[in-house]
Amino acid sequence: MSAFAKERFSRLVLPRLDEAYRLARWLTGSAADAEDIVQEASLRAYRAMETFVEENARAWFLTIVRNLCYSWLQKRKAERLAIKEDKDPADEQVMETGGVHTHTPDTPESLLIAKQETMRLTRVIDALPVDLKEILVLREYHALAYRDIAAISGVPLGTVMSRLARARQRLMQLLEDSH
Amino acid sequence: MDSDLDLLLNAYCDGELSPAETLAMELRLAEDPGLRAEAERIRSLSRSLHSTLADVPVPDGLRADILHDLGLQETTAPPTPTPRRSLLRSFAFGSALMSLLGGMVLGGGTVYLTMRESSEPIAMDIYSAHARALLAPQPFDIASSERHTVKPWFNGKVMIAPDVIDLSAQGFPLAGGRIDVIDGKAVPVLVYRHGGHLISVTVLPMETRLKEGSETHEGFTIKRWRQKDLLYVAISDIAAADLQKFAEKFRAAEQQER
């Protein structure tokens, strides 16, 4: 690999690993798989550096991550069907992340409430269907413009708008229900 | 609520409507308290979502593993990660990386990164001040959408008397002003709103050692430009294109001043 490709990779991809990881974590619901996905995405990005036409590197890299997450989700679904695993991924997530934050006496009440809020929000985000979740994360965490979200997700602008509105409606509903 | 209106309201809160659509929506909001409440629900949801989504800790070894897999090395060790303040930490490192580009030397199989002058700590100061302001109960010391209230407030407190630009007609209403300490000096900061988001504009002396240009890190975009003997640094988590638009409007309005 040339020095040119290495320089590009350091400049265009390395600074985006954290946000790529968080996207993968939210889409797959799994910390370990998110790590694998970001490693694979980095490898692919690195191989493409020689010929990459420098434009919107951020959207380009996030698209690779997003597509790998979808492949991973499909593979997971097939595996689950094959071994008749009946555990819902949302439940698994709750089992992985929920319930472990037990009350410690020296935690101030307000902090505890904030923490519980975050956990509750995490659960309802994880429970969203992936097509809504993807748009929501790209907007609320990555703060991308609608047209960038449309490009990354490969859907028209109107679909981005309707999915985002639906995702937010659904979250508000779930949050109310879980009270 | 009918679904078209809901889409428009969401797009309005995200700052994605055209100026004409924005105006139409603001007129509707002015006469419909139910719609205003809905807009506030969307914004408040966005705020909690952003902090929850960004709160996911990134595994400590991820970066090192990737560099190792690709046969790359870096001579600058990343700061010791802590899971909680990950947003600040990764920004610090990312911004260090960005500012290092000028000083990046390439050699056989190794990417060497070297520190470039002192611009990075200043950029970090500005970022930290903005991040802290977002966590504080109020992101400003004086809350006012009235430019003639904000400008005199800075008098006698800081050495720079910035022009307080009114951009409410362009979709960026003034929220207030605060004073940050950047590079050891007290400087004025103008705070604007856009949708549910805030934009901090830090005003620094011309000679501040910061390059003009843009960066994006962890969902925050930063734009720097020099104008009329001052250096302006705008930072926000709105879309990069929106901050670009803001900077253009700000520059154009500032040009008209005096």
Structure description:
The complex is a heterodimer of chains A (179) and B (258). Chain A has a domain at 1-86: Rna Polymerase Sigma Factor, Chain: A (Orthogonal Bundle). Chain A is mostly helical and 179 residues long. Chain A has nine helices and no strands. Residues 93-105 of chain A have low confidence and may be disordered. Chain B has a seven-stranded antiparallel β-sheet, sandwiched between helices. By secondary structure, chain B is an alpha+beta fold. Chain B folds into three domains: 3-54; 62-112, no CATH class; 119-256, MucB/RseB, C-terminal domain (Phosphorylase Kinase, domain 1, 2-Layer Sandwich), CATH 3.30.200. The longest helix of chain B is centred in the N-terminal third of the chain and has 22 residues, at 33-54. In chain B, strand 4 and strand 5 form a beta hairpin. Chain B contains eight helices and nine strands. Chains A and B meet through helix 1, helix 2, helix 3, helix 6 and helix 7 of A and helix 1, helix 3, helix 4, helix 5 and helix 8 of B.
